[in-house]
Amino acid sequence: MRLKGKTALVTGAGSGFGEGIARTFAREGARVAIVDINLDGAKRVAASIGASAIAVEADLTSAAQTEAAVKAAAEFGGGRLDIVVNNAGWSHRNKPMMEVTEEEFDRVYAINVKAIFHMSRAIIPHYRAKGGGVIINIGSTAGIRPRPGLTWYNSTKGAVNLLSRSMAVELAPDRIRVNCVAPVIGATGLLEQFMGMPDTPENRAKFLGTIPLGRFSTPDDIANACLYLASDEAEFITGVVLEVDGGRTI
User: Which residue among 109, 127, 153, 228 is the active-site one?
Assistant: First the structure.
């Protein structure tokens, strides 16, 4: 078990990539806090994992709720928290950039970028006190090879990709490793948002045609990448933006 004895907090873990990450971490021996604004989803995932998981409701755009989630996760881990995965994300619908409303712009930045700001302020003091820790941010190939119609979303993921590298440099003296996983489009609840059209075989084919390996990413793909970066096997890996994309960014 590659994470035996460790405690992890995974945001947006009530479904999609986050659920896959949480399940993989638990399978590999970690105690996992399933953090999601959708408490029913978090409870479902935690219940299916069993005693090694706890459901925590939190709106990560709130500093106070983020701090409370970190506290709950650390208490679940017997006073320690070793791994944080900032997976929660949202996208405005694929459409021309001039049609995105200010409310949508604010929301996509609040969830995709500011939530990491809040989580960093909550977890870094804990990591410094215990002598280190792991942060994994879920960025996107959208921040490397952007698709039209997602300009403001693309920019948030560009921010996540770069801030991960900057965090890694600044926090390395504290033995805090920071890495980023950049998935290509996956068949998650946000698929139609990304496509900006109904999820039909014909419309999927348009997007699959841009991925050399010919399929979307899956929760297991992202979870396996996170597992490596979270494990002690990656103890000398920091500041990496790992593209899990079937060749999309080539």
Answer: 153
